Amino acid sequence: MQQTFPPYPGDASGRDETVRADVTLRPDGTRRFTLQSSQAQRDGAAQQRSIDELPDAPRVQSPSALFDALFAMAVDDARLNSVDAIQDAAYNGGQPIPCRGFQTGERWHYVWTRDLAYAAHLGLAWLDPERTATSLLFKTSGWRDGITPRAGLPASSTQIVQDTGSGGSWPVSTDRVSWAWAAQSVLDMLDGDARQAFADRARAALQGTVEADRLAAFDPASGLYGGEQSFLDWRVQSCAPWITDQLARMAGARALSTNVAHFQALQLLAQLSDAAGDAAAAARHAGWAADLRTAIDRVFWLDEAQQYASLTSDDGHPIALHKFDLLGTALAVVSGVAPPQRAAEALARYPHAPFGAPVLAPQQPGVPVYHNRAIWPFVTAYALRAAAQVGNPAIAGHAFDSLLRGAALNLSNMENLEWLTGLPQFDDGPVINSRRQLWSVAGYLGAVAESVFGWRVTGDGLHIAPFLTTAARRALGDGAAATLSGLRWRGHRLEIALALPPMPADAAGPAHYPVLQVTLNGQAINGVIGPQQLAAGDNRITVAFGSPVPGDTRIARVATVDAMDRADARVFAPDVPQVLSLDRTPGGTVLQFAAPAYREALRFNIYRDGHPVATGLAAPTWTDHQAQPGVAHVYAVEAMGMASGHRSHLSAPVRLDNSVQRLALGDWFVRDRAGPVGLELLYDNHAHETQTGVTNAVKVLRVRDSAGQAVAQGVVQMPHIEPDGDRHPLRLSTMLRCQLPAGRYRAELADFFNMSHLQANASYGGAGGAGGPLNAADIAALQVVTLPDTR
């Protein structure tokens, strides 16, 4: 069997590529598939691959040899990623670490929390629940010897590991809670003593993590958690360029994907506490989850765009930026955070390129392909799941075609692909790309098992609910039946057989086939299948479909642009404006900025203290006539294309510091009147590079009055600082915001913890690793800031 894939229309050098699938039946009844791709492979790899079906593994039999081969390839990719030891140059001196788990890909021999979490949620948990559970528990940790849990954390709790990362890791990044997606999926698969044992350890890890994040990353004013976007953790790929020099700003910002992961963690912890008989804890965390759902919908939803913003500023009143990411959008849908109408709108308006949807939109100017200008198959798999949930066959079908094309042409499930051509290497990237990337593998497995065959295990049982689109029906080939066999659930063996509807006409538009009937071992069933309904031996589930139904077929498609053009205003955002000066004059506070180059006319929006105060400016200057005297207002500028509507990231924030008092930490300061105050530290932390490490300095800043009573306190962060040549400049920490009555005060600093305090990092080779925990920064001064009173 041979299939042809056309090139991107905007690529002048493009050509048709073909994939051929040949099948050999082996004596034991399994098949050997030989795949040949005409496309040049990444890093000069072979253009042929042979895959043997495993007798005890899931397999697909359909009218299409290519369809069957690609599923077998995903199972084989998962097998190749199944290891007895993992290793990374940064840990254990680069020597193997015993772990019967999964490695992340051909080029990535370690296991990272978020990669594993999303992979397990998409498919690994049902493919190999025991190995998945072992991998997940490897990403939890107790404290190092001699370290006791910090105040406010349950004594018996552990922590989910936030891997090395931006500014020294947690809580600049807080998406370790994505672990909860995986834990839920594993719990749904396990049974008996194994399930209870995993549930106990999962509860301990979530208890410690949730309570620590509440202390270190939760903002009561917005109701959201701080921290960078989940997965989009290469700062300049998705954030403003200036952020690498001010990582405390990224720590204080809020991200859609990360907050939805916090919601999932809170929900799961509430369920586990309820099952353990702790009604008070269950109610507490369920209440936090409900409040967080409301806050996410309130802050991130943009009425004018009818989409959820990907991230916000770090202002006390956060600005939801006109930046969008597919993972955050899809997670908001599949989690149920997004109400049904908003879920459908957000997906329908997210832009799609011909061979898949990019993981962020619009694209960033001047940034090579990796997260920017890229398709990531695992995110595409989440988009497919979300589209099925809202009943959009156009988006679901497009996602399925994207996954199949990428796997077929590359003879593996790649880490990422260039967003227009769908190639594993085009123009300046992807900068890094690995075969059999774990979450891509799981995404393909889940797309077939869940979307096509309807296999979905939840806490209440087995659901058979395929969302078979015309796109997937074409991929199955011209025939009457397809079977997914080799499935296992709680000691039972199952297969799902589809009675396929007729092939759609070539000109037929997107639609899906509603399920007419499901039978289990010959008996019609309605609703969820419980383990007690299954036979001790083999179980056969059959599914019959009705005629195709269009449903919601909206899909936003990007313009066909030159694949080599890195600045087309139809798909690229403007660059970030640069503030040149901010001066207080008799006529008001004058802000002047430089307009970035862009291929269409620009207009500018001004924000003060998180609120829009001027919109649609043509000239790069503005005068604030409403500034309050004695208040440290913060200003930021945003550029917007007049034709495209694309918006830049915000400029680096600026403020007049005439309302900022600088003093030594521990010195007394006086507030003449009651009102809102911000406290921040001027510091240096050069323990490691800005893009990695575990030594973000995480401290408790406490304010005491003249009587020695603590009147305010909170966690502040001092992430690693970008060097300036051979020196390290001073930067500002995150801000502690509080209300203080008139009076005399002083501030003191106490230790909290960071990821270096965990036993999991005892073998880490960098600062805070084998040499012992490190949670330190050089404090040059305390700054007391008079904030605007917005009550």
From TrEMBL:
Record Gene3D superfamilies: 1.50.10.10
BP GO annotations: carbohydrate metabolic process
Compositionally biased region (Basic and acidic residues): 13-31
InterPro entries, per the entry: 6-hairpin_glycosidase_sf (IPR008928), 6hp_glycosidase-like_sf (IPR012341), MGH1-like_GH (IPR054491)
All residue ranges annotated as the Mannosylglycerate hydrolase MGH1-like glycoside hydrolase domain in the record: 256-408
Pfam family, one: MGH1-like_GH
Region (Disordered): 1-58
Name the record gives this protein: Mannosylglycerate hydrolase MGH1-like glycoside hydrolase domain-containing protein
Lineage: Bacteria, Pseudomonadati, Pseudomonadota, Betaproteobacteria, Burkholderiales
